[in-house]
Structures are given as structure tokens and as C-alpha cells.
Amino acid sequence: GAVVSQHPSWVICKSGTSVKIECRSLDFQATTMFWYRQFPKQSLMLMATSNEGSKATYEQGVEKDKFLINHASLTLSTLTVTSAHPEDSSFYICSASEPRAPNQPQHFGDGTRLSIL
Amino acid sequence: AQSVAQPEDQVNVAEGNPLTVKCTYSVSGNPYLFWYVQYPNRGLQFLLKYITGDNLVKGSYGFEAEFNKSQTSFHLKKPSALVSDSALYFCAVRGGSGGYNKLIFGAGTRLAVHP
After folding, report:
1. Interface check B83 vs A, CB under 8 A
2. How far is A74 from chain B (nearest CA, A)?
3. DSSP letters of chain A?
4. Are A33 and A95 in contact (CB under 8 A)?
5. How far apart are CA B86 and CA B111, in angstroms?
6. DSSP label at residue B23
7. Contact at 8 Å (CB) between B11 and B20?
8. Longest pairwise C-alpha distance within chain B
9. Given A43, A46, A102, which is nearest B108 (Cβ)?
């Protein structure tokens, strides 16, 4: 089945550091990828929709300059948390959809746990 | 606005007993409905989906779900629970005014299966 790879799985870094998270679709071309944030014991919150070759669409309340998204190819989207602070600590998950297949499930990466000291 | 409700934060069931995890939705038009499972520190794994056709959908690991249009429900079921089924379960929907691109998730239900 379709596989989405997310890297790294765990990051611990100092406050003020920028952190890049990669999301790759391994066996299909993903024109659209999604970035979610999940707080402990809560549901997934959609942060943004990443579109290959164009700007990401951010959800209301998500800072574009804080969470930079780049979708430079059909198999790779990156999320960069710029100048991270402790309140940015969270579990970040990406997912990808196969093109023109809304009846197919989104495929999720295994998530990245970000801890800012 | 479209939404998904999972009314139970946690469901407890004894191993071998049947389990039900509830989900209701509010979406105009014909929704696409999904169930996902999440294990600790992992992403979401797809269990099953309803798009059209037979209201009873069978999925992975012995799970099934029944689509009920009149009650706008899509409850997840399994005839005999296993301890290894203990995890966080999410119901999700696509469609309606939000379009078929985004997934809208419920709050999640934690399933605890006791030996």
C-alpha cells in the first residue's frame, strides 16, 4: 500500500533554533500534502495544505512566517518551524493524498515529536 | 459547517467482548467517511472507509463500520476485542461545504481492552 515517510521522528533542540521536518510519499506522486499538529490526548489540527509548485494554504490562526512549508516536488514537502520556542513543542504529522482520488484515504507519516528546551 | 462527533472520550471493554466506538457527522451532501487508528507516538493508520454502496463496511484487523444515513452515524465495531486493539481511534469525513480535499477529524476515542 501507499507509504508516507516522515523524518525525523524525534527532535530535541534549544529555543530559537529552526527545525525542518520532511514528508515524502514513497510510491505515489502527491500533488497535495497536509500538515497537522497534535497536542497530547487531542485530535489532529490541520495547519496547512501543501500544494506542489504553489504556495501552501494555511488554516486560520496558523502563522505563515512561523511554519514555512515548501512542496518543491511531487514526492516531498517540508515544514520548517522557524525560531522555535517551547510553546511550539508538539507532535507534527504529515499526510498525502493520491491525485484526483478523494475517495481514497489520506496516508499518514509516523509523526515528528518536537521538543523545544 | 461540517463536523464530526465522537461522544465518548474512552471506551473500556473486556477482551473477547464486542466493541463499538461511536461517530456521528454533520455534512451536507454525500460524505466520504473514514476510520483511523493511532498507536502511541505513531501516525494514523487507515482502517476502513465508506464512499457509497453497502452500508456495512469491512476493514482491517477485523473491524467493520455501519453507515446509517438517517442517523448520520458511522459507528466502528468489532465482534471480539483484543488487548492489542487498545489505541486511539479517529473518525473522519470528507465532503460537504469543505470539499473533498480536506479531512475533518473527530476528537478521538481511546479504546482500552482489558485482559
Report:
1. no
2. 17
3. ---EEEE-SEEEE-TT--EEEEEEESSS--SEEEEEEE-TTS-EEEEEEEETTS--EEPTT--TTTEEEEEEETTEEEEEETT--GGG-EEEEEEEE-TT-TTSPPEE---EEEEE-
4. yes
5. 5
6. -
7. yes
8. 44
9. A43
CB B60, CB B48: distance < 8 Å: yes
Q: How far is the C-alpha of A109 from the C-alpha of A25, rounded, in Å?
A: 9
**A47: pLDDT confidence band, cut at 50, 70 and 90?**
very high
Share of chain A above pLDDT 70, in %: 98
Neighbour count for residue A116 (Cβ, 10 Å): 19
List, for residues B12-63, the tens digit of each pLDDT value. Answer: 999 999 999 999 999 888 889 999 999 988 889 999 999 888 899 999 999 9
Q: How far apart are CA B34 and CA B63, in angstroms?
A: 12
Q: How far is A103 from chain B (nearest CA, A)?
A: 6
